[in-house]
Amino acid sequence: MHKFWLISVIFLVLSACSSSDKKENLEVSNIIQRAIDSSGTSKFEKAIVQFQFREKTYRSIPTCEGLKLQREFKTDSAIIKDELNQGKFTRTKNETFVSVQDSLANLYSESINSVHYFVQLPFRLNDEAVQKSLIGMETDENKEYYKIKVSFQEEGGGEDFEDVYYYWINSETFQIAYLAYSFKVNGGGIRFRKAIVQQKVNGIQFLGYENYKPNFENAKVENALADFLAGKYVLLSTIENTDVLVNDVELNCN
Predict the structure, then answer these.
(1) pLDDT tens for each residue of 23-48
(2) Which InterPro entries does this entry report, sorted A to Z (predicted)?
(3) What number of other Cβ atoms are within 10 A of residue 45's Cβ?
(4) Cβ neighbours, 10 Å, residue 79
(5) How far from 84 is each of 2, 21, 42, 95, 147, CA to CA, in Å?
(6) CA–CA separation, 182 vs 180, rounded Å?
(7) Is 65 strand, coil or helix?
(8) Which of 7, 36, 1, 32 is nearest to 204 (CA)?
(9) What's the mean per-residue pLDDT of the chain?
(10) pTM of the prediction?
(11) Domains present along the chain, CATH in parentheses
């Protein structure tokens, strides 16, 4: 009798833990999906999107195998076009393919993906390599936010898979208000971004950011919002994308 009672208790505890885990996973997935829906960014799968960033033209093109990412810029003597498609990097110079060393190809690939990644948020939070969890709630002066932690699986997570991100999503509008991330390249560090520019083009919301870094040692990325509100971060730059174009396309992937 006692043995049966003990087994029943263990089963109930394990069931409760399982239900709790499922509830948290469902909750964070729902938050992310509502953020994607409110921003219209799922439309990246159905439209060619072009924008200017720091004197380069960026373009994402939907295909049946995923998004093809491009950037294009001019030098004194040539037009350079870089493309990242299904993890493969290619470069053309005046429409002629040129060979690029693997180390440089990896560097260029990460640069292209990084620019497109921030523009496509929060849509990219549903990438296969993304691991996300709801940490809790935080507030600034007058609003409440879901605090979500994002990390990446090594497979499919890119060269910077060890980076950790935090997103603060408005609990009423489901818009990204802040994000922060830690990185290990170039000596490592933390960056904090405050969303400041919101323009909607053909159904997709595009964000701009104020970009900050901590002005004290031993900063922790998970405390970034509280430290920012306490005046412990300094402005580095303003990040804006201009000349945004969104053109719908139809894919037949049958």
Answers:
(1) 445 489 999 999 999 999 999 999 99
(2) DUF6503 (IPR045444)
(3) 14
(4) 12
(5) 63, 36, 20, 16, 31
(6) 7
(7) coil
(8) 36
(9) 87
(10) 0.84
(11) 24-244 (2.50.20)
